[in-house]
Amino acid sequence: MNDFDPNTTVGRRGLILKLLDAKGQVNVHELSEQFNVSEVTIRNDLTQLEHKNLLIRARGGAIKTDKVTLDMKLSDKKVKNAKEKEAIGKRAARLVEEGDTIVLDSGTTTKEVSNHLSKFKNLTVITNALNIAGPLAELEQINVIMPGGVMRKKSLSLVGSIAQNSFKNFFCDKLFIGADGIDVNLGFSTPHLEEAALNRTMLKMAKKVILVVDSSKFKKRSLAVIGQVKDIDILVTDRGITEEDKEKLLNAGVEVIITD
């Protein structure tokens, strides 16, 4: 950190960004004490850095941004952390029990969950994802339900008020849901407003909520909040999760499953 002079505004802001990169989040009070300046000065620093899209302001401080509001195509998402997603999907599928009615949200990690369901003899899958419903429809022992909606081509999912109203007619044993960002203090989120609205309806209809995310999604926030950590029953992720995030999740009553 000695590349920056903490006694100058530019240097102090550079150091704040380095701290943010290392820790994932920073606190106004702690920064004020560290740099021996007022909290008003620190808040102004954070505001100016947020205007440059270098961080996201949060209560009492700021969190790191990796521009997670970018709404990527499904084909682009497949490439990112493919091995981790495959392992998460395989492990999450072990939570499904014979005779269950489950909801599979659209997404690359939930798609991996669907790839490991062929062994079941009696299963009902409700999904708004075309790329999940298609392959499952070929399995005679799996009953597939697709609510209606308007198709989002980027995610091959059905969204909108039609989809939301349809989901209100179903209850399920388990919901498997993904996210583009998760911050243990602020919740989990997605770049797309209609996806988030539909996901919030899904949360209400499920007995058990299982969030499937690879560790790269932690300490990130997208545009639209889906839910809070308290809404999650089980989280399945990979070994890249930090001990700090794991502890916070456990303290919030979330069961954390880490893939091998």
From TrEMBL:
NCBIfam families: AgaR. SMART domains: DeoRC, HTH_DEOR. This is DeoR/GlpR transcriptional regulator. InterPro entries: AgaR-like (IPR047779), Carb_Metab_HTH_regulators (IPR050313), DeoR-like_C (IPR014036), DeoR_HTH (IPR001034), NagB/RpiA_transferase-like (IPR037171), Tscrpt_reg_HTH_DeoR_CS (IPR018356), WH-like_DNA-bd_sf (IPR036388), WH_DNA-bd_sf (IPR036390). It holds the Pfam family HTH_DeoR. The keyword Transcription applies. It comes from the Bacteria. Gene3D superfamilies: 3.40.50.1360, Winged helix-like DNA-binding domain superfamily/Winged helix DNA-binding domain (1.10.10.10). Residues 9-64 form the HTH deoR-type domain. One of its GO terms (molecular function) is DNA-binding transcription factor activity. It comes from Carboxylicivirga sediminis. The keyword DNA-binding applies. Keywords: DNA-binding, Transcription, Transcription regulation.
